[in-house]
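FAQ

Q: What does a record look like?
A: Structure on top, sequence underneath. For example:
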Protein backbone atom coordinates (compact mmCIF):
# COMPACT_ATOMS: atom_id res chain seq x y z
CA UNK A 1 0.00 0.00 0.00
CA UNK A 2 2.77 2.41 0.98
CA UNK A 3 4.70 1.62 -2.22
CA UNK A 4 1.57 2.20 -4.29
CA UNK A 5 0.98 5.52 -2.53
CA UNK A 6 4.57 6.59 -3.12
CA UNK A 7 4.29 5.58 -6.77
CA UNK A 8 1.13 7.63 -7.19
CA UNK A 9 2.81 10.66 -5.59
CA UNK A 10 5.82 10.29 -7.90
CA UNK A 11 3.50 10.04 -10.89
CA UNK A 12 1.72 13.21 -9.73
CA UNK A 13 5.02 15.10 -9.48
CA UNK A 14 5.94 13.96 -12.99
CA UNK A 15 2.64 15.33 -14.28
CA UNK A 16 3.38 18.77 -12.84
CA UNK A 17 6.85 18.71 -14.36
CA UNK A 18 5.08 18.28 -17.69
CA UNK A 19 3.15 21.48 -17.00
CA UNK A 20 6.36 23.38 -16.18
CA UNK A 21 8.13 22.20 -19.33
CA UNK A 22 5.11 22.84 -21.59
CA UNK A 23 4.52 26.29 -20.06
CA UNK A 24 8.17 27.23 -20.69
CA UNK A 25 7.78 26.17 -24.32
CA UNK A 26 4.53 28.12 -24.63
CA UNK A 27 6.33 31.19 -23.28
CA UNK A 28 8.99 30.80 -25.98
CA UNK A 29 6.47 30.57 -28.81
CA UNK A 30 4.33 33.51 -27.66
CA UNK A 31 7.27 35.63 -26.50
CA UNK A 32 8.92 35.44 -29.88
CA UNK A 33 5.87 36.94 -31.52
CA UNK A 34 6.48 40.32 -29.87
CA UNK A 35 9.99 40.50 -28.37
CA UNK A 36 11.68 40.92 -31.76
CA UNK A 37 9.33 43.79 -32.69
CA UNK A 38 10.93 45.99 -30.02
CA UNK A 39 14.46 44.99 -31.09
CA UNK A 40 13.86 45.46 -34.82
CA UNK A 41 14.94 49.14 -35.14
CA UNK A 42 18.27 48.36 -33.43
CA UNK A 43 18.75 45.20 -35.51
CA UNK A 44 18.02 47.16 -38.68
CA UNK A 45 20.78 49.64 -37.91
CA UNK A 46 23.27 46.95 -36.88
CA UNK A 47 22.72 44.74 -39.94
CA UNK A 48 22.08 47.57 -42.43
CA UNK A 49 18.61 46.35 -43.42
CA UNK A 50 16.55 48.36 -45.87
CA UNK A 51 13.12 49.66 -44.83
CA UNK A 52 11.58 47.36 -47.41
CA UNK A 53 13.27 44.20 -46.17
CA UNK A 54 13.18 44.64 -42.38
CA UNK A 55 9.65 43.23 -42.08
CA UNK A 56 11.04 39.80 -43.04
CA UNK A 57 12.44 39.51 -39.51
CA UNK A 58 8.79 39.23 -38.43
CA UNK A 59 7.24 37.72 -41.56
CA UNK A 60 9.72 34.84 -41.94
CA UNK A 61 8.79 33.52 -38.48
CA UNK A 62 5.05 34.01 -39.03
CA UNK A 63 5.04 32.26 -42.43
CA UNK A 64 7.01 29.22 -41.28
CA UNK A 65 5.05 28.91 -38.03
CA UNK A 66 1.59 29.38 -39.50
CA UNK A 67 2.24 27.41 -42.66
CA UNK A 68 3.69 24.31 -41.00
CA UNK A 69 1.49 23.98 -37.89
CA UNK A 70 -0.78 21.25 -39.25
CA UNK A 71 2.24 19.31 -40.49
CA UNK A 72 3.80 19.78 -37.05
CA UNK A 73 0.70 18.24 -35.49
CA UNK A 74 1.03 15.13 -37.67
CA UNK A 75 4.78 14.87 -36.98
CA UNK A 76 4.04 15.08 -33.26
CA UNK A 77 1.76 12.09 -33.47
CA UNK A 78 4.06 10.08 -35.72
CA UNK A 79 7.22 10.58 -33.62
CA UNK A 80 5.52 10.79 -30.22
CA UNK A 81 4.55 14.05 -28.55
CA UNK A 82 7.39 13.96 -26.00
CA UNK A 83 10.08 13.28 -28.61
CA UNK A 84 8.72 15.97 -30.94
CA UNK A 85 8.60 18.37 -28.00
CA UNK A 86 12.31 17.83 -27.25
CA UNK A 87 13.26 18.15 -30.93
CA UNK A 88 11.25 21.37 -31.19
CA UNK A 89 12.87 22.88 -28.10
CA UNK A 90 16.39 21.95 -29.16
CA UNK A 91 15.91 23.24 -32.70
CA UNK A 92 14.29 26.45 -31.46
CA UNK A 93 17.26 27.09 -29.15
CA UNK A 94 19.75 26.48 -31.98
CA UNK A 95 17.85 28.75 -34.39
CA UNK A 96 17.70 31.49 -31.72
CA UNK A 97 21.46 31.28 -31.19
CA UNK A 98 22.04 31.57 -34.94
CA UNK A 99 19.75 34.60 -35.11
CA UNK A 100 21.47 36.29 -32.19
CA UNK A 101 24.85 35.80 -33.88
CA UNK A 102 23.61 37.03 -37.28
CA UNK A 103 26.19 39.02 -39.26
CA UNK A 104 23.82 40.13 -41.99
CA UNK A 105 20.11 40.47 -42.68
CA UNK A 106 19.84 37.22 -44.64
CA UNK A 107 21.28 35.22 -41.74
CA UNK A 108 18.75 36.78 -39.36
CA UNK A 109 15.82 36.12 -41.71
CA UNK A 110 16.88 32.50 -42.19
CA UNK A 111 17.20 31.98 -38.43
CA UNK A 112 13.75 33.46 -37.86
CA UNK A 113 12.26 31.12 -40.45
CA UNK A 114 14.01 28.19 -38.77
CA UNK A 115 12.54 29.29 -35.41
CA UNK A 116 9.10 29.16 -37.04
CA UNK A 117 9.73 25.63 -38.36
CA UNK A 118 10.60 24.26 -34.92
CA UNK A 119 7.83 26.28 -33.23
CA UNK A 120 5.34 24.62 -35.60
CA UNK A 121 6.34 21.24 -34.12
CA UNK A 122 6.79 22.50 -30.56
CA UNK A 123 3.41 24.20 -30.07
CA UNK A 124 1.08 21.28 -30.98
CA UNK A 125 3.36 18.78 -29.22
CA UNK A 126 3.21 20.80 -26.00
CA UNK A 127 -0.58 21.14 -26.00
CA UNK A 128 -0.92 17.44 -26.86
CA UNK A 129 1.30 16.49 -23.91
CA UNK A 130 -0.82 18.61 -21.61
CA UNK A 131 -4.01 17.04 -22.92
CA UNK A 132 -2.83 13.46 -22.49
CA UNK A 133 -1.15 14.05 -19.11
CA UNK A 134 -3.97 15.82 -17.25
CA UNK A 135 -7.21 13.91 -17.55
CA UNK A 136 -8.82 14.42 -14.12
CA UNK A 137 -11.21 17.40 -14.30
CA UNK A 138 -9.87 19.51 -11.43
CA UNK A 139 -6.19 18.96 -12.26
CA UNK A 140 -6.95 19.60 -15.92
CA UNK A 141 -8.51 22.94 -15.02
CA UNK A 142 -5.48 24.04 -13.02
CA UNK A 143 -3.06 22.88 -15.71
CA UNK A 144 -4.86 24.58 -18.56
CA UNK A 145 -5.25 27.70 -16.42
CA UNK A 146 -1.48 27.96 -15.92
CA UNK A 147 -0.82 27.14 -19.58
CA UNK A 148 -3.26 29.81 -20.73
CA UNK A 149 -1.86 32.36 -18.27
CA UNK A 150 1.59 31.95 -19.80
CA UNK A 151 0.12 32.31 -23.28
CA UNK A 152 -1.99 35.33 -22.37
CA UNK A 153 0.83 37.11 -20.58
CA UNK A 154 3.55 36.12 -23.05
CA UNK A 155 2.91 38.94 -25.51
CA UNK A 156 3.05 41.58 -22.79
CA UNK A 157 6.14 39.98 -21.26
CA UNK A 158 7.73 40.00 -24.72
CA UNK A 159 7.27 43.75 -25.03
CA UNK A 160 8.71 44.35 -21.56
CA UNK A 161 11.64 41.97 -22.06
CA UNK A 162 12.31 43.33 -25.53
CA UNK A 163 12.49 46.89 -24.24
CA UNK A 164 14.72 46.03 -21.28
CA UNK A 165 17.12 43.83 -23.28
CA UNK A 166 17.37 46.27 -26.18
CA UNK A 167 17.93 49.29 -23.93
CA UNK A 168 20.32 47.77 -21.39
CA UNK A 169 22.01 44.88 -23.24
CA UNK A 170 21.70 44.37 -27.00
CA UNK A 171 19.01 43.51 -29.53
CA UNK A 172 20.82 40.17 -29.95
CA UNK A 173 19.76 39.16 -26.44
CA UNK A 174 16.14 39.24 -27.57
CA UNK A 175 17.09 36.04 -29.42
CA UNK A 176 19.77 34.67 -27.10
CA UNK A 177 17.31 34.74 -24.16
CA UNK A 178 15.45 31.84 -25.79
CA UNK A 179 18.43 29.50 -25.43
CA UNK A 180 18.52 29.09 -21.61
CA UNK A 181 14.71 28.93 -21.41
CA UNK A 182 14.59 26.19 -24.05
CA UNK A 183 17.43 24.20 -22.49
CA UNK A 184 15.80 24.36 -19.05
CA UNK A 185 12.58 23.07 -20.60
CA UNK A 186 14.54 20.26 -22.29
CA UNK A 187 16.04 19.31 -18.92
CA UNK A 188 12.52 19.26 -17.46
CA UNK A 189 11.35 16.76 -20.06
CA UNK A 190 13.47 14.08 -18.36
CA UNK A 191 10.59 13.84 -15.86
CA UNK A 192 7.81 14.01 -18.45
CA UNK A 193 6.05 10.64 -18.89
CA UNK A 194 6.91 8.93 -22.16
CA UNK A 195 4.32 8.40 -24.86
CA UNK A 196 4.40 6.05 -27.83
CA UNK A 197 4.35 7.12 -31.49
CA UNK A 198 1.06 6.50 -33.25
CA UNK A 199 1.11 3.39 -35.39
CA UNK A 200 -1.62 3.82 -37.96
CA UNK A 201 -2.44 1.61 -40.88
CA UNK A 202 -4.36 2.42 -44.00
CA UNK A 203 -2.40 4.74 -46.25
CA UNK A 204 0.67 6.90 -46.53
CA UNK A 205 1.28 10.41 -45.24
CA UNK A 206 -1.18 12.93 -46.67
CA UNK A 207 1.41 14.73 -48.86
CA UNK A 208 -1.15 16.71 -50.97
CA UNK A 209 -2.85 17.88 -47.80
CA UNK A 210 0.48 18.88 -46.28
CA UNK A 211 1.48 20.92 -49.34
CA UNK A 212 -1.93 22.57 -49.71
CA UNK A 213 -2.19 23.47 -46.02
CA UNK A 214 1.34 24.89 -45.88
CA UNK A 215 0.82 26.92 -49.06
CA UNK A 216 -2.66 28.12 -48.08
CA UNK A 217 -1.80 29.20 -44.55
CA UNK A 218 1.44 30.83 -45.68
CA UNK A 219 -0.35 32.78 -48.44
CA UNK A 220 -3.06 34.05 -46.09
CA UNK A 221 -0.61 35.03 -43.33
CA UNK A 222 1.66 36.78 -45.87
CA UNK A 223 -1.35 38.64 -47.31
CA UNK A 224 -2.20 39.92 -43.83
CA UNK A 225 1.39 41.06 -43.34
CA UNK A 226 1.44 42.84 -46.71
CA UNK A 227 -1.90 44.59 -46.12
CA UNK A 228 -0.28 47.06 -43.72
CA UNK A 229 2.30 48.57 -46.14
CA UNK A 230 0.33 48.10 -49.39
CA UNK A 231 -3.34 48.41 -48.35
CA UNK A 232 -6.17 45.89 -48.55
CA UNK A 233 -7.04 46.90 -52.12
CA UNK A 234 -3.53 46.16 -53.40
CA UNK A 235 -3.48 43.59 -56.26
CA UNK A 236 -0.67 41.79 -54.43
CA UNK A 237 -2.71 41.46 -51.23
CA UNK A 238 -5.91 40.48 -53.04
CA UNK A 239 -4.01 37.95 -55.15
CA UNK A 240 -2.39 36.37 -52.10
CA UNK A 241 -5.72 36.20 -50.26
CA UNK A 242 -7.50 34.68 -53.26
CA UNK A 243 -4.69 32.18 -53.79
CA UNK A 244 -4.63 31.25 -50.10
CA UNK A 245 -8.39 30.73 -49.97
CA UNK A 246 -8.30 28.56 -53.11
CA UNK A 247 -5.49 26.44 -51.66
CA UNK A 248 -7.30 26.03 -48.33
CA UNK A 249 -10.54 25.10 -50.12
CA UNK A 250 -8.60 22.48 -52.09
CA UNK A 251 -7.08 21.31 -48.79
CA UNK A 252 -10.55 20.73 -47.33
CA UNK A 253 -11.60 18.80 -50.44
CA UNK A 254 -8.49 16.60 -50.22
CA UNK A 255 -8.97 15.99 -46.49
CA UNK A 256 -12.54 14.79 -47.00
CA UNK A 257 -11.23 12.04 -49.30
CA UNK A 258 -7.90 11.16 -47.67
CA UNK A 259 -7.56 7.84 -45.85
CA UNK A 260 -5.23 9.45 -43.28
CA UNK A 261 -6.14 13.16 -43.38
CA UNK A 262 -3.75 15.72 -41.96
CA UNK A 263 -6.75 17.44 -40.34
CA UNK A 264 -9.81 15.19 -39.87
CA UNK A 265 -12.83 17.36 -40.63
CA UNK A 266 -14.70 16.10 -37.56
CA UNK A 267 -12.30 18.21 -35.51
CA UNK A 268 -13.76 21.37 -37.07
CA UNK A 269 -17.36 20.21 -37.43
CA UNK A 270 -17.94 19.49 -33.72
CA UNK A 271 -20.16 22.32 -32.48
CA UNK A 272 -18.39 23.06 -29.18
CA UNK A 273 -14.95 22.79 -30.77
CA UNK A 274 -16.01 25.12 -33.59
CA UNK A 275 -17.09 27.64 -30.94
CA UNK A 276 -13.67 27.40 -29.32
CA UNK A 277 -11.87 28.00 -32.63
CA UNK A 278 -14.08 30.98 -33.55
CA UNK A 279 -13.72 32.49 -30.07
CA UNK A 280 -9.93 32.25 -29.86
CA UNK A 281 -9.41 33.46 -33.43
CA UNK A 282 -11.52 36.60 -33.00
CA UNK A 283 -10.12 37.21 -29.50
CA UNK A 284 -6.61 37.24 -30.96
CA UNK A 285 -7.70 39.53 -33.81
CA UNK A 286 -8.89 42.09 -31.26
CA UNK A 287 -6.13 41.64 -28.68
CA UNK A 288 -3.19 41.92 -31.07
CA UNK A 289 -4.69 45.13 -32.40
CA UNK A 290 -5.04 46.25 -28.79
CA UNK A 291 -1.36 45.55 -28.05
CA UNK A 292 -0.41 47.53 -31.15
CA UNK A 293 -2.50 50.46 -29.93
CA UNK A 294 -0.96 50.31 -26.46
CA UNK A 295 2.56 50.32 -27.86
CA UNK A 296 2.02 53.28 -30.18
CA UNK A 297 -0.28 55.35 -27.98
CA UNK A 298 1.82 55.18 -24.82
CA UNK A 299 5.03 56.03 -26.68
CA UNK A 300 3.91 58.55 -29.33
CA UNK A 301 1.13 60.34 -27.42
CA UNK A 302 1.98 59.88 -23.73
CA UNK A 303 5.75 60.02 -24.28
CA UNK A 304 6.57 56.76 -22.48
CA UNK A 305 9.91 55.07 -23.15
CA UNK A 306 9.77 51.56 -24.70
CA UNK A 307 10.46 50.09 -21.26
CA UNK A 308 7.73 52.16 -19.59
CA UNK A 309 5.28 51.25 -22.33
CA UNK A 310 6.08 47.58 -21.86
CA UNK A 311 5.79 47.79 -18.08
CA UNK A 312 2.32 49.29 -18.44
CA UNK A 313 1.23 46.02 -20.02
CA UNK A 314 2.18 44.15 -16.85
CA UNK A 315 -1.27 45.19 -15.58
CA UNK A 316 -2.79 43.25 -18.47
CA UNK A 317 -0.54 40.25 -17.83
CA UNK A 318 -1.44 40.18 -14.12
CA UNK A 319 -5.17 40.37 -14.91
CA UNK A 320 -4.78 37.54 -17.44
CA UNK A 321 -3.06 35.46 -14.76
CA UNK A 322 -5.96 36.04 -12.37
CA UNK A 323 -8.54 35.27 -15.05
CA UNK A 324 -6.91 32.05 -16.22
CA UNK A 325 -5.89 30.55 -12.87
CA UNK A 326 -8.22 31.92 -10.18
CA UNK A 327 -11.37 32.08 -12.34
CA UNK A 328 -11.19 29.78 -15.37
CA UNK A 329 -8.84 27.26 -13.74
CA UNK A 330 -10.97 26.86 -10.62
CA UNK A 331 -14.30 26.75 -12.48
CA UNK A 332 -13.16 24.19 -15.05
CA UNK A 333 -15.52 21.22 -15.00
CA UNK A 334 -17.95 23.02 -12.66
CA UNK A 335 -19.52 25.23 -15.32
CA UNK A 336 -19.95 24.83 -19.07
CA UNK A 337 -16.99 26.15 -21.12
CA UNK A 338 -19.22 28.75 -22.76
CA UNK A 339 -20.08 30.11 -19.30
CA UNK A 340 -16.45 31.28 -19.19
CA UNK A 341 -15.90 32.09 -22.87
CA UNK A 342 -18.88 34.42 -23.34
CA UNK A 343 -18.23 36.59 -20.23
CA UNK A 344 -14.55 36.68 -21.21
CA UNK A 345 -15.37 38.02 -24.66
CA UNK A 346 -17.74 40.59 -23.19
CA UNK A 347 -15.22 41.76 -20.55
CA UNK A 348 -12.56 42.26 -23.22
CA UNK A 349 -15.08 44.11 -25.40
CA UNK A 350 -15.91 46.48 -22.53
CA UNK A 351 -12.21 47.18 -22.10
CA UNK A 352 -11.93 48.13 -25.77
CA UNK A 353 -15.09 50.24 -25.55
CA UNK A 354 -13.69 52.25 -22.64
CA UNK A 355 -10.66 53.27 -24.69
CA UNK A 356 -12.80 54.55 -27.56
CA UNK A 357 -13.68 57.51 -25.27
CA UNK A 358 -10.10 58.79 -25.34
CA UNK A 359 -9.26 62.10 -26.98
CA UNK A 360 -6.02 63.99 -27.46
CA UNK A 361 -6.96 66.17 -24.48
CA UNK A 362 -7.95 63.39 -22.06
CA UNK A 363 -6.40 63.79 -18.61
CA UNK A 364 -5.42 61.18 -15.99
CA UNK A 365 -5.27 58.62 -18.79
CA UNK A 366 -3.49 55.85 -16.87
CA UNK A 367 -5.89 55.57 -13.88
CA UNK A 368 -9.13 56.47 -15.70
CA UNK A 369 -8.70 54.70 -19.03
CA UNK A 370 -5.66 52.50 -19.46
CA UNK A 371 -5.71 50.63 -16.14
CA UNK A 372 -9.42 49.64 -16.27
CA UNK A 373 -9.06 48.66 -19.93
CA UNK A 374 -5.94 46.60 -19.24
CA UNK A 375 -7.68 44.82 -16.36
CA UNK A 376 -10.83 44.05 -18.36
CA UNK A 377 -9.01 42.82 -21.45
CA UNK A 378 -6.63 40.76 -19.32
CA UNK A 379 -9.45 39.12 -17.39
CA UNK A 380 -11.30 38.48 -20.63
CA UNK A 381 -8.32 36.85 -22.32
CA UNK A 382 -7.60 34.82 -19.18
CA UNK A 383 -11.17 33.50 -19.09
CA UNK A 384 -11.28 32.62 -22.80
CA UNK A 385 -7.97 30.79 -23.30
CA UNK A 386 -8.24 27.85 -20.83
CA UNK A 387 -11.71 26.62 -21.87
CA UNK A 388 -11.00 27.06 -25.58
CA UNK A 389 -7.70 25.14 -25.29
CA UNK A 390 -9.46 22.39 -23.36
CA UNK A 391 -12.43 22.25 -25.76
CA UNK A 392 -10.11 22.08 -28.77
CA UNK A 393 -8.73 18.72 -27.63
CA UNK A 394 -11.46 17.30 -25.34
CA UNK A 395 -12.85 13.90 -26.26
CA UNK A 396 -10.43 13.41 -29.17
CA UNK A 397 -9.07 10.03 -30.17
CA UNK A 398 -5.41 9.50 -29.31
CA UNK A 399 -4.25 9.76 -32.93
CA UNK A 400 -6.17 13.03 -33.51
CA UNK A 401 -4.92 15.05 -30.52
CA UNK A 402 -1.88 16.37 -32.40
CA UNK A 403 -4.06 17.60 -35.29
CA UNK A 404 -6.54 19.27 -32.91
CA UNK A 405 -3.69 20.98 -31.03
CA UNK A 406 -2.19 22.20 -34.31
CA UNK A 407 -5.55 23.57 -35.49
CA UNK A 408 -5.95 25.48 -32.21
CA UNK A 409 -2.50 27.04 -32.56
CA UNK A 410 -3.19 27.84 -36.23
CA UNK A 411 -6.38 29.68 -35.21
CA UNK A 412 -4.37 31.84 -32.81
CA UNK A 413 -1.68 32.53 -35.42
CA UNK A 414 -4.19 33.57 -38.08
CA UNK A 415 -6.04 35.77 -35.60
CA UNK A 416 -2.86 37.54 -34.50
CA UNK A 417 -1.70 38.17 -38.08
CA UNK A 418 -5.12 39.43 -39.19
CA UNK A 419 -5.60 41.61 -36.10
CA UNK A 420 -2.26 43.37 -36.46
CA UNK A 421 -2.76 44.08 -40.17
CA UNK A 422 -6.48 44.91 -40.09
CA UNK A 423 -6.55 47.23 -37.08
CA UNK A 424 -3.32 48.99 -38.01
CA UNK A 425 -4.78 49.70 -41.46
CA UNK A 426 -8.02 50.98 -39.92
CA UNK A 427 -6.09 53.25 -37.55
CA UNK A 428 -3.90 54.68 -40.33
CA UNK A 429 -6.86 55.31 -42.66
CA UNK A 430 -8.95 56.96 -39.94
CA UNK A 431 -6.05 59.19 -38.88
CA UNK A 432 -5.42 60.30 -42.48
CA UNK A 433 -9.12 61.07 -43.07
CA UNK A 434 -9.35 63.02 -39.81
CA UNK A 435 -6.27 65.08 -40.62
CA UNK A 436 -7.61 65.90 -44.09
CA UNK A 437 -11.16 66.79 -43.07
CA UNK A 438 -10.87 68.20 -39.55
CA UNK A 439 -7.56 70.04 -39.98
CA UNK A 440 -6.61 68.89 -36.50
CA UNK A 441 -3.17 68.26 -35.04
CA UNK A 442 -1.22 65.11 -35.89
CA UNK A 443 -1.65 63.95 -32.27
CA UNK A 444 -5.42 64.37 -32.41
CA UNK A 445 -5.50 62.50 -35.72
CA UNK A 446 -3.40 59.66 -34.30
CA UNK A 447 -5.68 59.29 -31.25
CA UNK A 448 -8.73 59.34 -33.51
CA UNK A 449 -7.15 56.54 -35.56
CA UNK A 450 -6.47 54.46 -32.46
CA UNK A 451 -9.97 54.88 -31.05
CA UNK A 452 -11.52 54.03 -34.42
CA UNK A 453 -9.48 50.84 -34.59
CA UNK A 454 -10.49 49.94 -31.05
CA UNK A 455 -14.14 50.53 -31.92
CA UNK A 456 -13.68 47.93 -34.67
CA UNK A 457 -12.01 45.60 -32.14
CA UNK A 458 -15.01 46.10 -29.82
CA UNK A 459 -17.33 45.14 -32.68
CA UNK A 460 -15.26 42.04 -33.44
CA UNK A 461 -15.51 40.84 -29.84
CA UNK A 462 -19.26 41.47 -29.71
CA UNK A 463 -19.61 39.58 -33.00
CA UNK A 464 -17.53 36.75 -31.51
CA UNK A 465 -19.92 36.52 -28.56
CA UNK A 466 -22.94 36.52 -30.88
CA UNK A 467 -21.48 33.86 -33.18
CA UNK A 468 -20.28 31.70 -30.30
CA UNK A 469 -23.61 31.73 -28.43
CA UNK A 470 -25.49 29.44 -30.89
CA UNK A 471 -22.50 27.07 -30.81
CA UNK A 472 -22.85 26.59 -27.04
CA UNK A 473 -23.38 22.96 -26.13
CA UNK A 474 -26.73 21.70 -24.94
CA UNK A 475 -26.94 20.56 -21.34
CA UNK A 476 -26.75 16.86 -22.24
CA UNK A 477 -23.80 17.44 -24.57
CA UNK A 478 -21.98 19.43 -21.88
CA UNK A 479 -22.41 16.54 -19.47
CA UNK A 480 -21.05 14.06 -22.02
CA UNK A 481 -18.12 16.37 -22.84
CA UNK A 482 -17.22 16.70 -19.16
CA UNK A 483 -17.37 12.92 -18.75
CA UNK A 484 -15.07 12.48 -21.72
CA UNK A 485 -12.61 15.01 -20.30
CA UNK A 486 -12.38 12.95 -17.13
CA UNK A 487 -11.45 9.83 -19.12
CA UNK A 488 -7.86 9.49 -20.32
CA UNK A 489 -7.38 9.29 -24.07
CA UNK A 490 -6.98 5.67 -25.16
CA UNK A 491 -3.26 4.91 -25.38
CA UNK A 492 -2.38 2.40 -28.08
Amino acid sequence: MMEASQGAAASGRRRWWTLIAVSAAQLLVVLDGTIVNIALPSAQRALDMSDGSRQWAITAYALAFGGLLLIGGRVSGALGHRRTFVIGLTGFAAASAIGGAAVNAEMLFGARALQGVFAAALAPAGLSLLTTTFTETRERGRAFGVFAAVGAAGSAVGLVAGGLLTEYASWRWCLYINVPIALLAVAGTALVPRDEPIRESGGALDVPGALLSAGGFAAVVYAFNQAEPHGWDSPKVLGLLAGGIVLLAAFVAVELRASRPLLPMRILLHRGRAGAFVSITLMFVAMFGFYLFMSYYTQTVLGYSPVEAGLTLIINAAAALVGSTLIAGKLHGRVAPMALILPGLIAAALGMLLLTRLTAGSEHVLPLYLTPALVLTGLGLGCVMPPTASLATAGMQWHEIGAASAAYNAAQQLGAALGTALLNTVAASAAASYLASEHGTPTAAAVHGYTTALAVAFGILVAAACVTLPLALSRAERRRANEKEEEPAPVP
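Q: Is there anything notable about this one?
A: Residues 209-257 form one domain.
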